[in-house]
Amino acid sequence: MAASPFDLRGKTALVTGANTGLGQAIAVALAQAGAGIVAVGRSAMDETQALVGQAGAPFRAVLADLSSIEPVERVVAEASEPGRVDILVNNAGIIRRADAIDFTEADWDAVMDVNLKTTFFLTQALARRMLADGRGGKVINIASLLSFQGGIRIPSYTASKSGLAGLTRLLACEWAAKGINVNAIAPGYFVTNNTEALRSDEARNAAILSRIPAGHWGEPSEIGGAAVFLASPASDYVHGIVLPVDGGWLAR
Ligand code: NAP
Question: Which keywords accompany this UniProt record (predicted)?
């Protein structure tokens, strides 16, 4: 029987922010497809370790605060120690909410640093290794509906996620012919810490829910298939896309 084009056995995936939410769900989905997981983040990864273990895949954690690029070289070195990293999922991200008119420089910088600056330099550092041995790899950026839309009260988040979509396209153009696929996933509204404030605001919750054609908030497990696709040989000719996984939100 021919191998599945979604088979990730023998591959290693580095997932940032893998301790919870979408990062955890993506790590588990990649593990279920056969990939070993290097979970990178600033919090304990025990829960993710247990879930990846249940999938029968190898797991390692690398502790790092990604609010600056200071740990980037160490992260890449530690992650690559036992063998090369084939897949990078740039998932770690934060959001700060305030009216644009009151928005502070601190909230601007904090979001841009995690969501865009560290993402770029971590990708650069890992891509240098992927290019050096000529075997290429897969980069998956976790974008947002705010890569396409404006939103309200989240100026630095919208700027960072719109920037990430542009960066995805630029890197795809530079690296497609060199064997690295760079793509993004744009999650819709998912049940995670990131959306806690929206879900606990009754009016916002109802307004959001009424606009989602699928009729429910996304569960983290509903993001995994798109990540497996973009991490696997099935997407070898896919470059520079921002793939919405949004219950139909953008189709509305
Ligand atoms: P989440 O539960 O808040 O997860 C965010 C992840 O990023 C956590 O693992 C968090 O670690 C990590 N992180 C944040 N700052 C970090 C830092 N300085 N160093 C290391 N790790 C850091 O929210 P989520 O929804 O799963 O978010 C994951 C990604 O999806 C984000 O990029 C987010 O923008 C994006 N997204 C989410 C939605 C949604 O509806 N939920 C929609 C569109 C896009 P800690 O737990 O230690 O803080």
Answer: Oxidoreductase
